Amino acid sequence: MQRVNTIDISNVLQLEKTLSTLLNKMISSKLDLENWLKEQSKVIWDIEEQVRSHYIAFQCNTDDEEIKDTFEHDQQFVKPLLKRYQNLLDNKYLESPFRMELDSNVYGLLDTKIKNAQKLFCEENIELEIK
Fold it and tell me: Which residue stretches of 61-102 are H helix?
């Protein structure tokens, strides 16, 4: 049974709108932050799952121009956009006053992962990865 993706990553404007909506969502409590993290996880997973499936399709069908175009679209537009928004989402999480209220036994590893990703992020690297 094939999974139905809820986000159309072929439409960059719609993809950016989805990510922007997530970024601009109001967080006014610990519960809001937990729900926002779950929603973020689902959105990012959906996008990355499609990118991975396009990569696999391209590796299996290197002569198919449509599959190649889809793969190249992901590399040139989707992945850079996702990386930029992932950094913005990480910053939103790190700046949340409710972050310290989260149970460290549940969210401790995620917190460390996000802090490390934020330290390593460099906007200039995104353009280098496209080339």
Answer: 65-73, 79-95
